[in-house]
């Protein structure tokens, strides 16, 4: 799998469906994502139209998960009618560019519930 | 890949367990499933997979949130679409339409700028060329002087050598004084042979029994021949 340049060498039809989504790079047990614009029907490891950001999902030493976004180009492509994959929409929602995605809320309340449950279980056993 | 791995697994590595402990270094984890053409196992034939339970309130809440999100995203998209259109209209990146007069004026302006640039560069170039010429002249002059010096030195060396030769030619044997030289040589034979003993005494001559040059020793006669 070769790395295509961020400026993009992917060929595309003018009226085909584009999508902003992640491309999983990195390796086994070490995910790393490029946020790219490409034709929706294409495989994620095909050449991209344009790279608009990167996302490192594993927290670093300072407990940060690093995201880089080219918001200007994301706005451009969204204005051009590009679709959004769900993880990309969640990330952009958290970044503040778009409204918060419902899945973010859902994950949050499920996490809260499991935390409360485990806490209750710990209290009953102790 | 799937089929090959499955066949390999059925032949060799299937009894070895899920992924570890196979006879050799084959480990299939991701593609461990049976071939497409095998039927559903008898034990699984009537198994009904359990549906994930979703509470009613969560479902309604998610529905509400999704409706809200979609509405908001639609308006954001509308805004961005308008922004792109606006940007395309206002930007002069690739669609400037000019009248012929404007084009002419633009062209003249470009020519002017080009002429000033050319004049400036020509001035710089002339300066540079003049300097290069000067440097070259100086270099050639220097080389010429050096060559002259070298020649003089060489001539002096040659003169010295000629004088030396003339000086030594006075003792040369020529056709005229050949007989005299032969007679002199025959009259004065020179024997360059010598022997030397362990003490360092020198015995000159091939057949002579002369006393050695340095201090005499007891075995001089024995070694003299």
Automatic annotation (TrEMBL), chain A:
One of the record's GO molecular function terms: structural constituent of ribosome
GO CC, any one term: mitochondrial small ribosomal subunit
Keyword Transmembrane helix: no
UniProt cross-references to InterPro entries, sorted A to Z: Ribosomal_bS16 (IPR000307), Ribosomal_bS16_dom_sf (IPR023803)
Compartment(s): Mitochondrion
Keyword terms: Mitochondrion, Ribonucleoprotein, Ribosomal protein
Claim: Lyase is one of the keywords in the record: no
GO biological process, one term: mitochondrial translation
Entry similarity comment: Belongs to the bacterial ribosomal protein bS16 family.
Protein name in UniProt: Small ribosomal subunit protein bS16m
Source species: Drosophila ananassae
Gene: Dana\GF12900
TrEMBL record, chain B:
This protein's encoding gene: Dana\GF24580
This protein's record includes keyword Ribonucleoprotein: yes
Coiled-coil residues: 139-166
Region (Disordered) residue spans: 206-225
Organism: Drosophila ananassae (Fruit fly)
PANTHER family xref list: 28S RIBOSOMAL PROTEIN S26, MITOCHONDRIAL (PTHR21035), SMALL RIBOSOMAL SUBUNIT PROTEIN MS26 (PTHR21035:SF2)
Subcellular location: Mitochondrion
Family from the record: Belongs to the mitochondrion-specific ribosomal protein mS26 family.
GO cellular component: mitochondrial small ribosomal subunit
Keyword Transit peptide tagged: yes
Official protein name in the record: Small ribosomal subunit protein mS26
Keywords assigned by UniProt, alphabetized: Coiled coil, Mitochondrion, Ribonucleoprotein, Ribosomal protein, Transit peptide
